[in-house]
Amino acid sequence: MAKRCYYEVLGVTRGASAEEIKKAYRQKAKELHPDRNKDNPQAEARFKEANEAYDCLKDDQKKAAYDRFGHAAFEGGGGGFGGRGAHPGDFGTAFADVFEDLFGDMMGRRGGGGRTRAQRGQDLRYNLRVSLEEAYTGLKKSITVPGSIACDECAGTGAEGATQPATCPTCAGMGKVRAQQGFFTVERTCPTCGGQGQIVKNPCQACHGAGRIERERTLSVNIPAGVETGTRIRLAGEGEAGLRGGPAGDLYIFIEVQDHPIFLRDGKILACQVPVSMATAALGGEVEVPTIDGGRARVKVPAGSQSGRQMRLRGKGMPPLRHGPGASGEPGDMLIELTVETPVNLTARQRELLREFEAEQADNSPQSDSFFNKVKSFWDGMTR
Question: Is 193 known to sit in a ligand binding site?
Fold first, then answer.
């Protein structure tokens, strides 16, 4: 049976780029893998066919020979391809490539041909508590962060005298070794260098070959006005130092705004419960309330106010959290919620006056009258 055109097998045109060929092969490999097609006896043959096609077309020299001579370029032990003896159906090599593409990141690959000589440092988290007043004004705060920094003695290389580490002889600097296990080529972390791709023959005495040392650092952090609980601030490069000269990680500062004894916060809105006397609520008057900036504001209480009545002070809430230069936004409002307070520990004269008031009270309790009218209707309905 004549072989199909390699381009046809992968579903690409002859002018397809290397990236398009790789993408098409990855799709075919996932689609035709025998483990996914146990009920399809033809899947394994087509899977091998796709591997053979990709192994040829991924190589520039093989691809050029195939474009010129077709399948004849590889007949006779590779004579049509400069006598290299390479066969395009090398399944292990082709599948190893797609295996690395699909799963390389999970195994620690970060580009550069699979080399992992220098490792990026880990990100750090720092929980910072601020008061509501500090969240309102913003502040600059010094924090002490435990962690690691690049070793000065070896300049982060891990080798004595700042010399460069040597290439690992086991994996030739790849950080991984491959082993053929039947149908598959399995890739594992190199046991000699631990995936670094390099070994340190003379470790630095200060950092013992790690390229970094543990040390606390004091950092100055700008906390912008308007932060809320859960706000995250990123300080690039202030995390753990990388291994053997790798880049440092980042430091993430998570803000927690403490509860306030007077104000409740909801985004940019501040709320404040203010107690007023029965007389002030009934007759009307003024109350003095605090504002988050440390000021005072006088609020008029309308006559006949009930508990729960709210009044609004425009612009007296929290500022917006600005994101980037030129960002703007209006500050929030402050809500005043009245709480009518019932007096306690009355004197004899006060009790006498309240009894007189109760006797004179007529149609000036609309909520009470409405409630008891509903209660009377409810009870009447139950006795019918």
Answer: yes
